[in-house]
């Protein structure tokens, strides 16, 4: 309730000051309205993440089966990440379309290690996504079969 009240106050403040404080200054900063709201959003997010972690830890130690289930889930995720990194990810630093070295936004060349980690992250996402879809389909099919 308190967060809603704070959000409502800042919403009314943002509407009352108009567009001028939202315009960027010479440094490219929207300091009067946007930056303070970003800090408040960061603080609220940190509070929420802290509360989630506290309640997760409490739940893990108050329910004996939860710790085993969490350990199995973390183990499965680690296996998927290792599989993606060592089996599927490629460490190529060349653009497949042009054959040229891939350059990053900061002007440096993509390293083989960074390419490997990026590939592993993408493959992990694909594997987890496919497994999620398959588990949804399996749950639906098993419900249909049981009826």
What's the short version?
Helices cover 71% and strands 0% of the residues. The chain has 147 residues and is mainly alpha-helical.
Q: What is the domain tally?
A: 2
What composes the largest sheet?
Answer: none
Q: Based on DSSP secondary structure assignment, what is the total number of beta strands?
A: 0
Note the overall shape. extended
Terminus-to-terminus distance: 43 Å
Individual helix count: 4
Q: How much helical structure, as a percent, in the residues?
A: over 70%
What series of H and E elements makes up the topology?
HHHH
The radius of gyration is 24 Å
Structural classification: mainly alpha
Note the beta-strand portion. under 5%
Mean pLDDT, to the nearest integer, reads 86
Sequence stretches where pLDDT stays below 50 over 5 or more residues: none
Please describe what this structure looks like.
The structure is a single chain. With 147 residues, this protein is an all-alpha fold. It folds into two domains: 1-62; 64-147, no CATH class. It has helices at 2-17, 34-62, 64-88, 112-146. The longest helix is centred in the last third of the chain and has 35 residues, at 112-146. The chain is extended, with a radius of gyration of 24 Å.
What's the topology here?
Layout (H helix, E strand, L loop, with lengths): L1 H16 L16 H29 L1 H25 L23 H35 L1
Top keywords for this entry?
single chain, 147 residues, mainly alpha, 2 domains
């Amino acid at each position: 309730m308190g967060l809603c009240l704070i959000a409502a106050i800042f919403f009314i403040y943002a509407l009352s000051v108009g567009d001028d404080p939202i315009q960027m200054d010479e440094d490219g900063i929207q300091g009067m309205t946007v930056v303070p709201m970003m800090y408040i959003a960061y603080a609220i997010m940190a509070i929420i993440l802290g509360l989630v972690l506290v309640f997760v830890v409490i739940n893990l130690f108050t329910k004996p089966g939860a710790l085993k289930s969490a350990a199995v889930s973390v183990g499965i995720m680690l296996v998927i990440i290792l599989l993606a990194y060592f089996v599927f990810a490629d460490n190529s630093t060349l653009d497949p379309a042009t054959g040229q070295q891939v350059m990053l936004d900061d002007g440096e060349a993509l390293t083989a290690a960074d390419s490997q980690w990026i590939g592993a992250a993408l493959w992990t996402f694909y594997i987890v996504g496919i497994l999620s879809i398959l588990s949804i389909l399996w749950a639906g099919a098993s419900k249909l079969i049981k009826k």
